[in-house]
Amino acid sequence: MAQPKIGVLVMSYGTPESMEDVKEYYTHIRRGNPPSEEQLADLTGRYEAIVGGFFPLRKNTDRQVAGLQAALDRLSPDTYVCYQGLKHAKPYIEDGVKQMREDGITEAVGIVLAPHYSTMSVGSYIKRANETAESVGVRMNFVEEYHLHPKLIEALTARIIDGVGKLGSEPPAHDVTVLFSAHSLPERIIQMKDPYPEQLLATSRAVAEAAGVQNWQFTWQSAGRTHEPWLGPDILDTLQEIGQSGAKKVLAAPIGFVSDHLEVLYDLDIEAKAEAGKLGVQFERIEMLNTDPLYMEVLADSVINAK
User: Fold this and answer.
1) What CATH number does residue 194 fall under?
2) CA torsion 260→265→269→274, rounded to 10°?
3) Could you state one GO cellular component term attached to this entry (predicted)?
4) Which residues are annotated as a binding site?
């Protein structure tokens, strides 16, 4: 009799599948409170600005899950089967866990498509998955972070070197400022001693050192529009500061993200690039990991070694 496979719940933020789904998606993000017409128009406009409203994150997530499955099949044949669980879109995290149980799976590993741990991000995914798993009888282990996995550093390093080259330089590239960035979170995580900021700095240091780049900073992006303060400085403010200091070449390295999606294709490629243009700064961005074979191996290795 065949041994039951181990489930792998691949979790990510989620995105709407079409323009018609944007309101439902935004309402879920807002914990059931529908957005105002102004808020909805703003988000819809951002999606429309990135190649006509096409939703790359959903396609990328599908491909990443398929890529992880292929890597697991190669490294540990006939052992794992992957499922999706999204935070703010269908199939929700709870749906993924329940589907595993319906398929007869009683043991699973959860992993988030985000290398850095925060109680507000990865921690919230794990909490939702664990609560559902306990209720349906699935025993789950979780990968909490993989921010210094050697193959992650290798993949990001190659992208930094390539990006510096696009700016007409080569390491140590003293004429290029590399701006590592990630999604901002509310400032209160500092009081909580949340590891998120330090993990991001650790990844930045490791990649900068491996790439031989000396002129770099860490900055934040994509802060939420709420009344409480969020971590800063924002990348638009950082661009102004370094532009006024004489910087002429900037390479954006959004290491907190692993896919081409709204925060990359709009916040960086449109908004930050426009700001750099006003300042007379040449602006490039590293390619995202998406289904890079090294990233797929990072995920697979992390799943196989999950305790």
Assistant:
1) 3.40.50.1400
2) -170
3) cytoplasm
4) 13, 30, 46-47, 125, 183, 263
Q: Phi first, then psi: give them for residue 220, nearest 5 degrees.
A: -115, 165
* One domain for residues 171 and 232: yes
At residue 53, does pLDDT exceed 60? no
Q: Are 140 and 109 in contact (CB under 8 A)?
A: yes
H helix runs in the chain, sequence order: 22-29, 37-49, 56-75, 93-102, 122-136, 150-166, 196-211, 235-244, 262-265, 273-278, 293-304
Q: How far apart are CA 240 and CA 247, in angstroms?
A: 10
pTM > 0.70: yes
Give residue-wise pLDDT tens across range 142-177. 999 999 999 999 999 999 999 999 999 988 889 999
Range of the domain at 184: 150-285
Give a yes or no: residue 1 inside a domain: no
The tally of domains found in the chain comes to 2
3-state secondary structure at position 61: helix
Asked whether residue 103 falls in the same domain as residue 208, the answer is: no
- Which residues fall in the annotated binding site for Fe(2+)? 183, 263
Do 215 and 252 share a domain, yes or no?
Answer: yes
Binding residues for Fe-coproporphyrin III: 13, 30, 46-47, 125
